[in-house]
Amino acid sequence: VLVESLLVFAVVLSVHAVVWDRFSWCAVALAVQAFYVQFKWDRLLQQGGAVFQFRGAANSGLLPASMVIPLLGVVMKERCRAAGIVYFERFGIVVASTGMLLALFLSVLAVGITKPVPTNTCILTGVAGSVIIYTMKHSLTVSEVIEVLEVLLIFVYLSMILLYLLPRCFTPGEALLVLGGVSFVLNQLIKRSLNVIEGRGDPIDFFLLVAVVGVVLLGLFFTVLFIFMDSGTWISSMFFHMMTAVLGLGVIMPWLYRLIQRNPLFWLLQFLFQTQTRFYLLVYWTFLAASACGVVFYQNAKRSSESKKHQASTITRKYFHFIVVATYVPGLIYDRQLLYVAAVLCLAVFIFLEYVRYFRIKPFGQTLRHLLSLFLDERDSGPLILTHIYLLLGMSLPVWLFPRSCAPKGTLPGAGALVPYSGVLAVGVGDTIASVFGSTLGEIKWPGTKKTFEGTMTAIFAQIIAVALILIFDSSVNLNSSYAWILASVSLVSLLEAYTTQIDNLLLPLYLQIMLMA
């Protein structure tokens, strides 16, 4: 935990040294108080007094999770300020303020339920909170303050509902990241739906917002419904499929139509087959999806013949990382907008299939339970299987969160040109190579972890080679001699992979994106 915290502080101070404004000072204050409060959360988890049931075999992860959204907002603000885009500079300030307020809420919650009350930590949290609120008071307009408070309110309600319904699925830090992100997306969708101006906004952004909110609302609806009826019967399954169609065609499609001012299905078909390159990419991705399904069926057939082997090995699970890299790299090089929309569609399909598996919806629910049980690891201790969804999110978030409006030529200068590749580098290359080489050749373990020195060093080396290949094949990337910063960023994130107990597929790409954007 101490080494993980030290690495997070290194990232915070690196961003602070580049930005050096009131918000970067607030980020430093937030990091200091989150470091102390993290130990209170860890003690609550060990004693079973943390209100909700969180994922075991991991620490609270409060410090690394608390810094992600604020730092993303700070570096986004700085990039958009340099580009002269005032609207998105203000948006970055709202993102940073929202992240700080959500992290403070979790900290106050931990301090409030700790017995006896930790006086020193209370004082530190109060000081950090006062600094952050004072800064927000002098930086945000009234409408922006209301927007931040709306996100906090949505987060509180979502946390109470989902953490109760889904025990042992998240650590406190992961809950902050996932539920905080969903709360922000829901608030943005409500805000934009109430202020629709024809022709304003990119349809693919609206597509992401509606898809995320739609699948979350779908899950909440069926979770409440199946409290009162058995979800495993044919009648319930038919009702599930019927209501999914009704909600999709009767709520989500009209909502999207209102935002983009055109038929969503016609727009999507026109978008997907607009150019010949997109058609070739879709055919190639279909082949890769079939290959991934083939790996699942082959491994399950192998399990049936070898009764002693119950779980897939680490190397077997990393096959999917290689397939995802092969999926994302051509999309990043040839058509990022298509990759953006395809990733949104995949996320919606993945979450829908998880609902089918979780609720045992006929005819495929039980089959999915059997097929996916082979690939479970210690992080899938709750009722949901989320590792494959986290892998998709880790690869997609750098593409979705890339500030296109602040990059007039489609790319950011210097190391920022690699931002869309953050998921590919951190998860697709770094995490995969570290796991494969660490588990097969590693002998020297990092103190206090199961990760090896050889795995981490190989991961850093592999990511540097990947950057060189990106420079060769993607002509839009121009690093402007920022090689030392890239090496430091890759090294910090690779060390964080060795020491964190959080979901690395989700955390590592975001930290690499923060460093590259800074």
Automatic annotation (TrEMBL):
| Alphabetical keyword list | Endoplasmic reticulum, Kinase, Membrane, Signal, Transferase, Transmembrane, Transmembrane helix
GO function term, MF aspect, one: dolichol kinase activity
Q: Biological process (GO) annotations?
A: dolichyl monophosphate biosynthetic process
Look up and give the membrane topology term: Multi-pass membrane protein
Where is the chain membrane-spanning?
A: 7-36, 56-75, 87-111, 148-166, 206-227, 239-257, 277-298, 319-334, 340-360, 381-401, 421-441, 453-473, 485-512
Give the CC-aspect GO terms: endoplasmic reticulum membrane
Keyword Chaperone present in the record's keywords: the answer is no
Cell compartment(s), UniProt: Endoplasmic reticulum membrane
Q: What broad class describes the main subcellular location of this protein?
A: endoplasmic reticulum
Where is coiled-coil annotated?
none
Range of residues in the leader sequence: 1-17
Which InterPro entries does this one have?
Polypren_kinase
Q: What is its EC number?
A: 2.7.1.108
- Member of which family? Belongs to the polyprenol kinase family.
What's this protein's name? Answer: dolichol kinase
Which species is this record about? Ploceus nigricollis
